[in-house]
Amino acid sequence: MLGRRVMYSLMLLAMAPLAAAQNALPFNNAAVGPGGNNVMLGPGQGQGLSNGSGGGANADFDSLIDLIASTVASETWAENGGGEAEIRPFVGGVWADAQGVLREASANRSTEQGRAALAADLAKLRTSVASRVEAALGKSAMSGSDARRPSGLRCISLPRLEKEMERLLAAGQPLDEAMLTLAGLQRVEYVLVFPESGDLVLAGPAGDWRVSDEQRLVATDTGLPVVRLDDLLTMMRRDPRSPFGCSIDPRPESLAAAQAYITEHPIPSGRRGRDRWLEQVRDQVGLQDLSYLGMPGDTRIACVLGEADYHMKLIGMGLADGVAGMQSYLDSIRVKPGEPAPAVGAVRWWFGMNYAAVEQSDERDAFHLVGQGVKVMSENEAIAARGARRPTGQSDELSAGFATSFTANFAALCDQYPVYAELRNVFDLALVTALIQSHDLLPASGWQPGLMVTADALRLPRYAAPTAVDTVANLRVVNRRHVVAGVSGGVWAQPTEVLAKRMQASKPDGPMQYAPTSAPEGASNWWWDAE
User: Fold this and answer.
1) What are phi and psi of 472, to 5 degrees?
2) What does UniProt give as the signal peptide span (predicted)?
3) Residues 6 or more apart whose Cβ sits within 8 Å of residue 301
4) What residue ranges do the domains of the chain occupy?
5) What are 323-338's pLDDT values in tens digits?
């Protein structure tokens, strides 16, 4: 038998059955869930950027029906329901706290000289914006098709967008594709305030979009997901000061039963016997509970968080391919002849926010988000972040190594698996809404949002999230020793912590490349380009 010394723990990944969307609105008869998943987060905590909340259905996203090519027979986003959603649940854990991220950002400031230089750069950008109104005037009469052209920096005025949405809905017309994709915005890099024109602007690279084979709205040139209106509204309708996330947790009595089974039943030597043994362990662990915090569990963002976390753990366990230069956690385990196996323990990874800086001008009317946005944290790192530390053994070192490798290869992983870029967009929006709240950018711009923050006026799609998931286990043999590796954890996003510790943190490598222009007074257009 091969059961002399066995290193093991339980791989706590989860899968759930197809869930039906409730009052969901269709993208051209196609589900809008990211490639498939539907887990995360329960009822939101607190108010959003304004006091709009609740259900209701005065308007919907009917134009989504015309956006994604026909892949699902039923109208899964139809406001009155009646269709089965093709939203395949994926589970994991997520935690996000934008306010915590804000605090972290400001605590890590650069030298005073560097900060002054940075503020001067942003002031120049802001001055350039104000001086280019005439240039913007010639670009103000844009058709929806123009939004598909590439732009190094596209400006989206939230007040103007809301006004145009209100006009269309009042006329009984659907929102157009450019609105649903925020004019093809690929990532939010700047937040700009123009009190003189009443504009609060999000800016970043943009271009044409398409629907991918996974039913994601992606940029035509890069294949990476675009920033979505429904995700922005979800973030605006929650309290940006509140963390959000999810966790998958095994039931204590089930873990005890699994531990007893492992102790009482040596691992068989044959492959079939090992497979049966592993199945018994999985059955002993049984269902795991999904818990949600800080955001409705019936949102598309919840789907993104769950899918990204689930897939990350598949990579960690060697059940999905990483990218060149990456090694799964299981493959990283090495046991030399005669040495004991690593100590038994749970392997925990989850996503956190990752921003090098949130730069701002002295006038606090121009902000620049710097960083890849996402990192993977291992158990010991996350526990330390919450104030509780424990010793790190070999298994923890291997876990931290995988987390570091995943973070270092994040850009390549986004290219191969677009769900990670979707997660980055979600974190960007969480940080942006936390910035708007913490720096009082609504009163600074003179804008009081209505439709965007009022669910009664514009209902978003709803997804049914599971509350329990099945356990999935994996097994690997190392030096004739059986290894069953365990995973738990989730996604942890703390936007306010980023802002606190990264605000004005570093000088850019070079001068600002773009000077976005403010929209001319009276222009009806809600987006414009600034090269």
Assistant:
1) -120, 135
2) 1-21
3) 40, 41, 231, 234, 235, 295, 426
4) 7-50+58-124+238-251+286-510
5) 999 998 888 877 777 7
